[in-house]
Amino acid sequence: MIKALIFDCDGVLVDTERDAHRVGFNRAFTEFGIDAEWSVELYERLLLTAGGKERMTVYFNEFGWPDDQVAKFGGQQELILALHKEKTRVTSEIVTELPVRPGVLRIIDEARAAGVRLGVCTTSNAKFIDAVLDLFGAERKAAFEFVHAGDVVAKKKPDPEIYNLALETLGLPASDCVVVEDSRNGLLAATGAGIPTLITTSTYTKEEDFSEAARVVPELGDDPAIITLADLNALNEAATA
Asked: d(Cα 79, Cα 83) in Å, to the nearest integer?
């Protein structure tokens, strides 16, 4: 039986990318007087870069930096940090109105009942993931043993550093764990750390290559189509055999 279940956040716990993060970036640009708006289509391409600060840097490098704001904040990275802080504030408010993805609360309860340890590994800001976990209720939130978020590691997904940190935190081998991810970057990070990975596809990731995944499903699901803790145990056994 698996001893730990590790979740990504965005697209796994809540489908946040299109209707929370993208909107938050656009509102931050408006607040700062920056002439930029990320469409649904553009954001899909920008998501190939993990991390919000990194994503904005890629965008401005391609489309041009707002020189007046760069000067105002004393440099490009200083502007990025200020924008990201505002974007995090906005998205932390937006996420309170979004639904938890189907099956997430059920599988958390199954894991808790079986004594399976829980954690989160995400490139999102710690304040944002805190707001997401609030959606679960106090008891479920308290059951998460760790949340590795944002800049806790030097290299973001697809680098496996954050999942290696999770294994170190848990004190467990990769073979005792399962990861739930929704993107290729996340899949490569988890499997790079040797952890069997279930993919639950999200709005922006349905067409990505998940050939390294132990299994790919549209969601964890509620009755009648569901992924149970027993399924995750079977997935782990097959992947580590």
From this structure: 6
Cα 152 to Cα 11, 122, 165: the distances in Å are 20, 10, 9
Q: Enumerate residues 6+ apart whose C-beta is below 8 A from 11.
A: 17, 182, 183, 200, 202, 203, 204, 205
Please state, in angstroms and as integers, the Cα–Cα distance from residue 194 to each residue in 50, 128, 230, following that order: 20, 27, 20
Strand partners, 11: none
153 close to 142: Cβ distance less than 8 angstroms: no
Q: Which residues are catalytic?
A: 8, 10
**pLDDT value at residue 63:** 97
pLDDT at 151: 83
pLDDT of residue 186: 97
Say if CB 236 and CB 196 are below 8 A apart.
yes
- Surface-to-core class of residue 107, CB atoms within 10 Å of its CB (0-12 exposed, 13-18 middle, 19+ buried): buried
pLDDT in tens, 157-195: 999 999 999 999 999 999 999 999 999 999 999 999 999
Structure tokens at 202: 């999200």
Total Cβ atoms within 10 A of residue 71? 10
pLDDT in tens, 193-207: 999 999 999 989 999
Using alpha carbons only, what angle is made at residue 39 by residues 68 and 74, rounded to the nearest 5 degrees?
20
